[in-house]
């Protein structure tokens, strides 16, 4: 006995469309179908879509200049912001450089009032930890590999604005035993008398995080999937934490560095991408981080190298407009003993270039500006090359600066990524000399990565650059 299915014209077009696609015999309109049947078909279709559609872990990044940031100040002047950004860039570079020096065991580790992040840099991300989940606000860092948050009970902790995580109240919390896989990548690892794995992160200036290594569940609020839960992830539960600055906007670090087993970059799928729009616009909300298989691994690529837990790329040259600068190919290369090289960083605003490349770029920009822009003497050495005017008005038609990487990938810096407004009538080059006699290190900061999706594929060992409006990735 056969059954004839059809649809009622009174059914919604959306519901009818779903039923018709599921059952081709539902055309043309020639009889009625019960509401129960329509509901059944919709349930089946929804189940099929749920089973076949992969989850995509895409979460919003909150920049320091965004109105969503806890420290956002609508009354902050352009001059105050530029001072904050350039100061934090100098300090971040010193931190990275000293960290590498220590790992290389070259000379003495510099001791200054530095921490990996201060009030001027870094992107924040919202996540929740534990069962039941407790909301946290952490800063992402491609320069470190461990996720850690402050945990109760706190023997010594810094002030935080978000909720405190109490592992004793979480049903999914599990302390790691000694000798777990990846322990050798953990800074300050030791095994205590209870066969528990401990860590101690020591930052410059005396900042520390110390506690137990454990497994826990993370809940991410995503831009396209609602909420995604990831379980059994290694992290640091910090019971003793000290921070020299008064920034209480974050209460932990989300490590995306290159050390396997402990970094979220490998725990969540060996791929991640971030898309950065206009960090100068406080209302721009489309900066995003994608973790795992859903990462946007598109565009031109360049080989990725890992040294000292950081992501290095091979910068082969620089062009201004169509003119390729005559930079010594060795200027950006890493030497046999680990000096030099170019790393990509998520926490530094400005870019620092080894002197051999910076000087030629500096001279070329100065030549282009000669007779067109009025140069302003700088009060501080690291401000570099400054002119009178407004970036958006006076640099129209300025040739872009292009970073050329091995493999054919390019990073194109328009005027908004090349210069930074330092006041109402003054702007400065946002690329600074490394002035590093010891390491000759170069770091590509986040300003140079504006308007790009940058993807890291740790299986192919490649970095991908794709110029795009990040808002398109939300659609």
Automatic annotation (TrEMBL):
<dbReference type="Pfam" id="PF14543">
    <property type="entry name" value="TAXi_N"/>
</dbReference>
<keyword id="KW-0325">Glycoprotein</keyword>
<dbReference type="InterPro" id="IPR051708">
    <property type="entry name" value="Plant_Aspart_Prot_A1"/>
</dbReference>
<dbReference type="Pfam" id="PF14541">
    <property type="entry name" value="TAXi_C"/>
</dbReference>
<dbReference type="GO" id="GO:0005576">
    <property type="term" value="C:extracellular region"/>
</dbReference>
<feature type="active site">
    <location>
        <position position="345"/>
    </location>
</feature>
<keyword id="KW-0645">Protease</keyword>
<dbReference type="InterPro" id="IPR032799">
    <property type="entry name" value="TAXi_C"/>
</dbReference>
<dbReference type="GO" id="GO:0006508">
    <property type="term" value="P:proteolysis"/>
</dbReference>
<dbReference type="InterPro" id="IPR033121">
    <property type="entry name" value="PEPTIDASE_A1"/>
</dbReference>
<dbReference type="InterPro" id="IPR001461">
    <property type="entry name" value="Aspartic_peptidase_A1"/>
</dbReference>
<keyword id="KW-0378">Hydrolase</keyword>
<feature type="active site">
    <location>
        <position position="141"/>
    </location>
</feature>
<feature type="domain" description="Peptidase A1">
    <location>
        <begin position="123"/>
        <end position="466"/>
    </location>
</feature>
<protein>
    <submittedName>
        <fullName>Probable aspartic protease At2g35615 isoform X1</fullName>
    </submittedName>
</protein>
<dbReference type="GO" id="GO:0004190">
    <property type="term" value="F:aspartic-type endopeptidase activity"/>
</dbReference>
<keyword id="KW-0064">Aspartyl protease</keyword>
<dbReference type="InterPro" id="IPR032861">
    <property type="entry name" value="TAXi_N"/>
</dbReference>
<dbReference type="InterPro" id="IPR021109">
    <property type="entry name" value="Peptidase_aspartic_dom_sf"/>
</dbReference>
<comment type="similarity">
    <text>Belongs to the peptidase A1 family.</text>
</comment>
<dbReference type="InterPro" id="IPR034161">
    <property type="entry name" value="Pepsin-like_plant"/>
</dbReference>
């Amino acid at each position: 006995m056969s059954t004839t299915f059809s649809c009622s014209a009174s059914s919604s077009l959306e519901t009818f469309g779903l039923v018709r696609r599921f059952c081709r015999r539902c055309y043309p309109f020639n009889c009625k179908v019960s509401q129960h049947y329509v509901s059944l078909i919709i349930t089946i279709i929804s189940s099929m879509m749920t089973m076949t559609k992969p989850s995509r872990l895409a979460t919003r990044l909150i920049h320091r200049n965004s109105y969503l940031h806890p420290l956002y100040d609508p009354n902050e002047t352009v001059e105050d912001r530029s001072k904050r950004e350039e100061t934090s860039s100098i300090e971040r570079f010193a931190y990275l450089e000293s960290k590498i020096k220590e790992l290389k065991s070259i000379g003495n580790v510099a001791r200054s009032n530095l921490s990996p992040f201060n009030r001027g840099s870094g992107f924040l991300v919202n996540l929740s930890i534990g069962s039941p989940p407790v909301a946290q606000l952490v800063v992402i860092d491609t320069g470190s590999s461990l996720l850690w948050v402050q945990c109760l009970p706190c023997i010594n902790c810094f002030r935080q604005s978000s909720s405190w995580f109490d592992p004793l109240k979480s049903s999914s919390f599990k302390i790691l035993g000694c000798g777990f896989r990846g322990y050798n990548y953990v800074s300050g690892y030791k095994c205590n008398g209870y066969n528990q794995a401990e860590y101690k992160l020591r930052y410059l200036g005396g900042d520390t995080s110390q506690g137990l290594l454990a497994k826990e569940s993370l809940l991410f609020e995503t831009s396209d999937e609602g909420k995604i839960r990831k379980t059994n992830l290694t992290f640091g539960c910090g019971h003793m934490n000290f921070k020299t600055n008064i920034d209480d906007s974050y209460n932990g670090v989300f490590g995306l560095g290159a050390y396997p087993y402990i970094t979220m970059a490998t725990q969540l799928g060996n791929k991640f991408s971030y898309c950065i729009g206009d960090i100068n616009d406080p209302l721009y909300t489309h900066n995003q981080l994608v973790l795992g298989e859903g990462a946007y691994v598109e565009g031109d690529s360049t080989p990725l190298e890992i040294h000292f837990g950081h992501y290095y790329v091979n910068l082969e040259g620089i062009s201004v407009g169509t003119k390729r600068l005559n930079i010594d190919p060795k200027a950006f290369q890493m030497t046999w003993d680990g000096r030099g090289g170019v790393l990509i960083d998520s926490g530094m605003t400005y870019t620092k270039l080894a002197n051999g490349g910076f000087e030629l770029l500096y001279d070329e920009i100065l030549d282009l500006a000669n007779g067109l822009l009025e140069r302003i003497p700088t009060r501080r050495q690291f401000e570099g090359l400054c002119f009178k005017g407004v970036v958006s008005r006076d640099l129209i038609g300025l040739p872009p600066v292009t970073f050329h990487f091995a493999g054919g990938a390019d990073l194109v810096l328009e005027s908004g990524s090349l210069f930074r407004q330092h006041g109402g009538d003054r702007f400065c080059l946002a690329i600074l000399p490394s002035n590093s006699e010891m390491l000759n290190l170069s770091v590509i900061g986040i300003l140079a990565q504006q308007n790009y999706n940058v993807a890291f594929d740790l299986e192919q060992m490649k970095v991908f650059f794709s110029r795009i409006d990040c808002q398109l990735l939300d659609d």
